[in-house]
Design the sequence.
């Protein structure tokens, strides 16, 4: 079987790794940077922008692709699934209409409202700054302000983290509207949810889902959750599929919400096939929906895909033929800790073109997995771009052992201008999360 993987990040390296473990699959890949991990696993690759639909479809036809998997959100929004499907190629990713669950935050909130889906937050959208003032004041300025469209995970600002009070909130509302951040002169304002965040990813065949282990991502750049939001600095998951602060009941509520969402999408005439991602906040009441993504998370894909014991291609086939409910999902019951290596200055002004030495063999000997991200390979070295460089994932029974394994492996990544959030998955940070939840009376 010829499988096309679209995207050149660490998430796509993890997808390629899962495909590679399946029998009888030849991998073809399309990426805009030369990811050495994907290059190694691919029979052939094409260096091309993932949103260049004509070139991608052309390549897929030439290579007689049987199954395409799309990693990032931009080609989903650009309609790559639709165009490949129109050319007779099976795609295990949502159509651009179904992907609006991620690419249009207003549409997503309206869908939740229309179908009375649990975990909704109070929200309104505005095109006029003045009109938004009353809504912001209702929450004493305690709101999240979001551009409507895609911003690479960097357009959302939350009170207490990025601004304080109504006046500063209004300044950002004005910026989003005037500068059309996220593509529209419109802004989404939501009540701020207080609690701890987690990600639940699931496979969907459009009718039913199979949820994976819960994961906690770390969006903020600096240790202790300080600094600007990033695409995600690292993440962890636990052997039992839950998280230290996440009770089974909340996990199940989140899975039920994802199920309600794919049913609502079905009723809207946009059947959802592929991986779906829910970001939730465990609050004193119930899990609240922060965002829904139409793909695997990055870094969260790297916590769950290495644990798959069920053949990944078989799962994709079941998503496509609607037989997921007959499928048993087998996952290796291990804990995982993933830490990203990023260029110094990432999130503000990355140091681009810096050499990074990666001792792949020694990393492998620690038992960790290595996933390359946005680096370019030249000769025997990799060089930073403005985005995240590579990720290392420790996998062990106990979370503390997975964290140690990840740190051991990181010793074999050397560069003068790299940065890592070493606190991810540590006991100290997890203690802090538990204390936070106890203070909110959630635990
Ligand atoms: P998003 O890009 O929607 O994932 O938002 C980025 C981050 O902002 C999330 O991971 C949350 O930490 C935070 N956030 C977004 N919406 C809210 C909200 N309504 N309440 C509290 N925090 C939020
Ligand atoms: N980890 C956040 C995302 O993939 O959007």
Sequence:
């Amino acid at each position: 079987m010829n499988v096309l993987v679209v995207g050149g990040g660490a998430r796509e390296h993890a997808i390629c790794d899962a495909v590679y473990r399946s029998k009888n699959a030849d991998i073809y890949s399309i990426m805009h940077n030369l990811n050495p991990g994907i290059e190694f696993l691919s029979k052939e690759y094409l260096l091309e922008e993932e949103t260049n639909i004509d070139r991608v479809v052309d390549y897929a036809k030439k290579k007689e692709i049987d199954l395409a998997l799309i990693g990032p959100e931009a080609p989903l929004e650009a309609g790559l699934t639709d165009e490949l499907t129109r050319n007779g190629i099976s795609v295990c990713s949502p159509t651009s209409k179904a992907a609006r669950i991620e690419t249009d935050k207003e549409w997503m909130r309206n869908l939740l409202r229309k179908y009375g889906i649990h975990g909704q937050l109070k929200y309104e959208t505005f095109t006029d700054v003045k009109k938004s003032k009353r809504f912001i004041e209702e929450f004493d300025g305690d709101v999240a302000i979001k551009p409507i469209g895609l911003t690479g995970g960097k357009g959302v600002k939350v009170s207490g983290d990025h601004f304080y009070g109504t006046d500063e909130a209004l300044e950002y509302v004005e910026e989003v509207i005037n500068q059309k951040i996220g593509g529209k002169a419109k802004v989404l304002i939501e009540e701020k949810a207080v609690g701890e965040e987690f990600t639940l990813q699931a496979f969907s065949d459009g009718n039913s889902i199979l949820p994976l282990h819960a994961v906690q991502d770390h969006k903020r750049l600096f240790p202790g959750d300080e600094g600007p939001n990033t695409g995600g600095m690292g993440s962890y998951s636990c052997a039992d599929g839950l998280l230290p602060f996440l009770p089974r009941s909340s996990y199940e509520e989140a899975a039920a919400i994802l199920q309600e969402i794919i049913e609502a999408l079905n009723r809207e005439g946009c059947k959802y096939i592929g991986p779906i991602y829910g970001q939730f906040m465990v609050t004193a009441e119930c899990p609240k929906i922060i965002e829904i993504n139409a793909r695997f998370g990055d870094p969260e894909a790297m916590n769950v895909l290495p644990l798959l014991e069920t053949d990944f291609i078989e799962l994709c086939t079941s998503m496509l033929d609607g037989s997921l409910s007959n499928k048993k999902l087998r996952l290796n019951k291990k804990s995982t800790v993933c830490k990203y290596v990023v260029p110094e200055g990432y999130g503000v002004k990355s140091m681009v073109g810096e050499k990074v030495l990666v001792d792949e063999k020694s990393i492998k000997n620690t038992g960790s997995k290595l996933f390359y991200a946005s680096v370019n390979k030249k000769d025997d070295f990799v060089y930073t771009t403005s985005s995240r460089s590579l990720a290392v994932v420790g996998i062990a029974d106990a979370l503390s052992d997975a964290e140690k394994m990840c740190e051991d492996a990181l010793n074999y990544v050397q560069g003068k201008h790299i940065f890592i959030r070493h606190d991810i998955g540590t006991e100290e940070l997890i203690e802090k999360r538990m204390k936070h939840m106890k203070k909110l009376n959630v635990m």
